[in-house]
Specification:
The structure holds two protein chains of two kinds. By secondary structure, chain A is mainly α. Chain A is built from 20 helices and six strands. Chain A has helices at about 5-25, 25-45, 50-85, 85-120, 125-155, 175-180, 180-215, 215-250, 255-260, 295-300, 310-320, 320-340, 340-350, 355-360, 380-385, 395-420, 430-440, 440-455, 470, 480-510, and strands at about 160-165, 170, 275-280, 285-295, 460-465, 465-470. Chain A has a two-stranded antiparallel sheet with strand order 1-2. A two-stranded antiparallel sheet of chain A has the order 3-4. By secondary structure, chain B is mainly alpha-helical. Chain B has one domain (about 5-375). Chain B is built from 14 helices and six strands. In chain B, a hairpin with a 5-residue loop joins strand 1 and strand 2. Classes of the chains: A mainly alpha, B mainly alpha.
Chain lengths: ~525, ~375
């Protein structure tokens, strides 16, 4: 087998990570802000108060600035599967391509078509019709997330698919299993709710800034309250769904969970601590400076007191037979592909379930050719492959922890924000308003860490237990990768500068037109009975 | 006929329709982007031009994304191989495409002259380059692409990207597709603008239509000199595996093989040429709505001409012709194609109806005076 140069694989991974993380800076805000806009507009349509129309339009403008980059960078992701991961796309396109295409048909078309009307249709549509359009945009963007996460789940927890030796790729067996993949469902809710948290913090933080400056006070106080209440509900739900996801990973991706928890050895319930702080050392396969809370890990992950959780050592140790069997599968498959003999197919069928482990081990075959493996090579190949079996523990462990710690922080800040806002006491706590403003970037950071946990934690596989990452890339030269990387870094840097400039400009400018009533006292604001409108 | 063959054919047909919709809808917006600096001399005029397609460009762009998504889902091997072998070209296409959404949203958000002028150039690049590459891609696949497959399905590229970038026939095809987009963009501007934009757009639309016809005819004669491909052996119902089961012959003029066997196919090149010339004439007669629908005829004629010549090939290989990608050997499984067909049957009519509704809501001339005073416009 011709191996793709490791540099090309690494550069492809780096490029994908870079462009995906960049894309994911714009997605969560879109997901949440569309619903906040819809909520604000609903109040406008029901009460007829101009303030809520101003709110919808002002936050809508910031939404537009963010949305443009979300659309632009999403295009990159679609291209990259074909340009950089052609082996993956061919091998898994049946399953992965379908939800992606459905996303376009069902969700993205709806969102993109109606977003134009949302901005341009204020004077041309009746109020209820415009409201319906706004809801369709929100629905479209969230359905979009659903289908993307269905596609992603098929890589993390492949279901409804089998390998077909006639076509040398995975084939689609069950639409229902792919769509109702539990990982997809849990991740969709977790991710879209994380988007609501992001949008809530965004609206709350900017509103806090106005309150602090005593500008647009009426507008800001109302926006703040909507965002705070939306935020606290979303945060509670995000944490709940995070727990569901953790348990799913525990069942289906033991290596990811072990890496997330820094668990080198299989746990001995029930006293096993949940590690708060540690420095995992991937090279020597142990943790330094472990600080943990005893009796927490087992109930947290398994919701029982007596189920052990697999550690990385033990996972490694038990993989030997699968690797050996997998290599037999690959060798038989290769002979079958070249000579079309039925006996090779029969051998392949015997070892089929370990095919992925065979692929993973195949790069250690002499001259990367599985035909040349003799029984003498086997022990050495198995030892080398075992080391590749799990992800980078340090990165997985810490990105997961940052996400969790930030989640707890959001709970505290939104709880406090809701309490103070409902009691109309926000302006007595300038330090808190300041904290709200400075917290705007944090949900974006948390979402990125969540993504890193999920995706680094999946390594060394692109399709978990089936297709290794190093096999998935296109067979390019490194110079292609350098060319595209330079382009992405340049373009994306320009974009982010332009985006931040406009965001700051329009956020500072605040809502227009200016309401004279904004400078009045706002001791008694209430969403239902505001006298100022 | 076997169920699987029917599904493969239906999806090849749908892909054809999708490519036509892409050319028509995305091409129209791209044409406006290419023309922006030429139909609008002042900032207010340029803003007017942008706001004519402002409510629709985002939705139209999804045809492009759907084109990619449908190839991915229905013909994954084609998607993987074409996007990779054209790597440099695809990345250039991507870079120019991602400029567009940003340019739309950001251009008019700040007054500075340099800022707006910069984004105006971005519109020129992001209108011209993608349409050029769209056409050039057809030019390249008509000549074949150098690649072959390994036993496990990994493709290996056999020729350098320069041969796809700098290649006279591909450049001709690229310019033809740009001409059609200028025609369509010009016609769209005419429908919804007043003078002076209207008159300028009218001139460009006429030039676009005539240029497209001339290039299309030159391309037609050129194709006689190009080495084409003929599938001599290969079961349409075969498992989707490009490594086995096909025999392909190549000889100069082979792309006319289908036309010789089925002379009725000549209808498509005729349709294309007539629509391009007739379109230019109708533009001259100031009937932009009719001219818009004639533009659809030009795209149908062009894409179907290529499809009829190549059938059943998608992307022939010059270095290992037997590994050429055809409708038969690179599709998804029958089950996958059937699922997708069910989804498409529900959503495509829905998309067409709400897109039409959006155009209906936003109908009428866009007035410069109104655009300039509206804070929500581009």
């Amino acid at each position: 087998m011709d191996l793709i140069h490791p540099w090309v694989v690494d550069l492809s991974r780096f490029q994908f990570a870079l462009t995906a993380l960049y894309h994911f800076m714009f997605v969560p805000l879109t997901l949440g802000l569309t619903f906040i806009l819809a909520a604000m507009e609903t109040v406008y349509v029901v009460t007829g108060k101009q303030l809520y129309k101003d709110m919808t339009q002002f936050w809508g403008k910031l939404f537009g600035i963010n949305f443009a980059l979300g659309v632009a960078t999403g295009l990159t992701m679609e291209f990259e599967f074909g340009t950089n991961w052609s082996m993956y796309s061919r091998f898994f396109g049946d399953i992965f391509g379908t939800p992606l295409a459905i996303e376009g048909l069902m969700a993205f078309f709806m969102e993109s078509t109606f977003v134009g009307l949302m901005f341009f249709g204020w004077d041309r549509l009746s109020r209820p019709a415009h409201l319906a359009v706004t809801y369709l945009v929100a629905l479209g963007s969230n359905l979009s997330a659903l289908w993307i996460l269905v596609a992603n789940a098929s890589m993390n927890m492949p279901m409804g698919t089998t390998f077909d030796p006639e076509t040398m790729r995975m084939t689609f067996d069950s639409f229902v299993k792919v769509v109702f993949n539990p990982d997809a469902q849990a991740k969709f809710v977790h991710t879209s709710l994380a988007g609501y948290v992001t949008a809530s913090m965004f609206v709350m933080g900017i509103s806090a800034f106005y309150l602090l400056r005593r500008k647009h006070r009426m507008f800001a106080a109302h926006s703040f309250r909507i965002a705070a209440l939306f935020g606290i509900l979303s945060t509670i739900a995000v944490i709940t769904l995070g727990d569901v996801l953790g348990r799913l990973d525990y069942e289906h991706q033991p290596t990811k969970v072990a890496a997330m928890e820094g668990l080198w050895h299989t746990s001995k319930p029930p006293a096993e601590p949940w590690i708060l702080f540690a420095i995992p050392d991937d090279k020597n396969q142990k943790n330094y400076f472990e600080i943990g809370v005893p009796y927490v890990l087992t109930p947290l992950l398994t919701h029982t007191f007596d189920t052990p959780i697999k550690g990385l050592y033990e996972i490694q140790d038990s993989a030997g037979p699968r690797i050996e069997s997998g290599l037999k599968a690959v060798a038989a498959l290769k002979r079958y592909s070249e000579q079309r003999q039925m006996e090779d197919l029969a051998v392949f069928k015997q070892h089929e379930k370990d095919l992925g482990y065979g692929f993973l081990a195949s790069r250690y075959a002499p001259e990367q050719n599985v035909d040349k493996i003799t029984s003498d090579h086997m022990p050495q190949i198995i030892e080398k492959t075992k080391l590749d079996l799990f992800p980078n523990v340090f990165v997985t462990f810490w990105s997961f922890r940052f996400m969790v710690f930030l989640g707890v922080y959001f709970f505290v800040i939104f709880a406090m924000a809701s309490y103070l806002s409902l009691r109309n006491q926000l302006e007595h706590y300038p330090w808190f308003l300041k904290a709200c403003t400075w917290s705007i970037p944090l949900p974006f950071v948390a979402a990125e860490f969540g993504w890193i946990t999920a995706e680094i934690g999946r390594q060394p596989w692109t399709v978990f237990d089936i297709l290794p990452t190093f096999m998935s890339a296109s067979s390019h030269t490194a110079s292609y990768m350098v060319f595209s990387l330079i382009g992405f870094v340049t373009l994306y840097s320009i974009f982010i500068i332009a985006e931040l400039y406009l965001m700051f400009k329009y956020a500072r400018l605040g809502p227009q037109p200016h309401h004279p009533s904004d400078d009045n006292k706002i001791e008694n604001i209430s969403i239902i009975s505001s006298k100022n409108n | 006929m076997e169920y699987y063959i029917v599904l493969k054919l239906i999806w090849a047909g749908l892909l054809c329709i999708l490519l036509i919709a892409l050319g028509l809808m995305v091409g129209m917006d791209m044409g406006v982007g290419t023309l922006l600096r030429f139909v609008g001399k002042t900032d207010a005029e340029r803003r007017t031009a942008l706001n004519i397609i402002g409510p629709h460009w985002d939705g139209n762009q999804v045809w492009f994304i759907l084109g990619g998504g449908a190839i991915f889902a229905a013909f994954p091997t084609l998607y993987a191989t074409s996007f990779s072998t054209f790597y440099v070209v695809m990345i250039l296409l991507l870079f120019s495409m991602i400029l567009r959404p940003v340019a739309f949203e950001y251009r008019s958000k700040t007054e500075a002259h340099l800022w707006r002028a910069g984004w105006d150039w971005a519109f020129l690049i992001s209108g011209f380059v993608p349409m050029f590459i769209y056409g050039a891609a057809f030019g390249n696949i008509l000549q074949g692409v150098g690649y072959h497959f390994l036993w496990n399905g990994q493709y290996i590229q056999d020729s350098s990207f320069w041969s796809y970038l700098i290649n006279p026939f591909a450049i001709l095809c690229g310019l033809m597709s740009v001409s059609l987009s200028i025609y369509q963009g010009g016609v769209m501007l005419m429908m919804r603008s007043e003078n002076p934009i209207y008159d300028r757009a009218r001139r460009f639309a006429m030039i676009g239509g005539i240029a497209a016809a001339v290039l299309f005819i030159i391309g037609g004669f050129w194709i006689f000199q190009i080495k084409g491909f003929v599938l001599t052996e290969g079961d349409p119902a075969m498992p989707a595996n490009p490594m086995h089961g096909q025999h392909v012959d190549t000889y100069v003029g082979a792309w006319l093989h289908n036309y010789t066997n089925h002379p009725i196919l000549w209808f498509f090149p005729m349709l294309g040429t007539v629509c391009m010339l007739l379109g230019a004439l109708i533009v001259k007669g100031n009937k932009p709505h009719l001219a818009w629908w004639i533009g659809l005829g030009s795209w149908v004629g062009t894409i179907c001409t290529v499809a009829a010549a190549m059938f059943p090939f998608f992307m022939p290989s010059t270095t290992t012709p037997n590994h050429s990608l055809t409708i038969w050997n690179c599709s998804s499984s029958a089950y996958g194609l059937a699922c997708m067909l069910a989804v498409a049957a529900i959503f495509v009519p829905l998309i067409i109806s709400y897109t039409s509704w959006c155009y209906y809501v936003m109908r009428g001339k866009v007035k410069t005076s109104k655009v300039v005073n509206d804070t929500h416009s581009y």
